[in-house]
Amino acid sequence: SHIRHAWDPTKSVAQNLAEMGLADDPNKAIPVPKKKLLGMEVESDGWKQGKKIVRKPYVVNEMEYEASLPEKKSNTLSRDLIDYVRYMIQNHGENYKASTGYEKNYYQDTPKQIKRKINVYKNFYPEEYKDFIASLKQEKMDVQ
């Protein structure tokens, strides 16, 4: 969006990017160093980049600022997996072996796989898991 707002449609792509302090060709922006091959000096591409005047430095500054912001974590579990795990905990608790032969076990998960899925749910939603376990204990007390 920063580039879009600073873009001048009357100029070429190379001119617009140069005014913003951006490179239009990354191969030319970073010079290739000289290399030595078997004792001989081989010079890289002879293109030398001259000093360019950056007329719109705010574009690069805004892009750098935006890139430095921390990312939002958007890791979530699918609703199906959450329902599956809650169902298994509700009906079988910690007995993973009993939950393997159950009809809701569509993917025929082994006891270890079910335990792993429950642990992933615990790690992703620790507060929700605690509330769920507390509600199960409350239901058991109400039934007795």
Description:
The protein is mostly helical and 144 residues long. Helices cover 55% and strands 4% of the residues. The protein has 8 helices and 2 strands. It has a two-stranded antiparallel ribbon with strand order 1-2. Strand 1 and strand 2 form a beta hairpin. Helix 5 packs across helix 7 and helix 7 crosses helix 8. The protein starts with a helix and ends with a helix.
Report a brief summary of the structure.
It contains 8 helices and 2 strands, in the order H-H-H-E-E-H-H-H-H-H. The protein has 144 residues and is mostly helical.
Estimate the global geometry from the Cα principal axes. elongated
Oligomer: single chain
Rg result: 30 Å
Task: Give a count of the beta strands, DSSP E runs of length 2 or more.
Answer: 2
Sequence stretches where pLDDT stays below 50 over 5 or more residues: none
**Total helical segments:** 8
Strand order of the largest sheet: 1-2
The sequence of SSEs as H and E is HHHEEHHHHH
Mean pLDDT: 81
Structural class: mainly alpha
The level of helicity is: 40-55%
Q: Biggest β-sheet: count, sense, barrel? A: 2 strands, antiparallel
- Give the terminus-to-terminus CA distance: 62 Å
DSSP strand (E) fraction? under 5%
Keywords: Nucleus
InterPro entries: Ribosome_biogenesis_Nop16
Subcellular location: Nucleus, Nucleolus
Protein name: Nucleolar protein 16
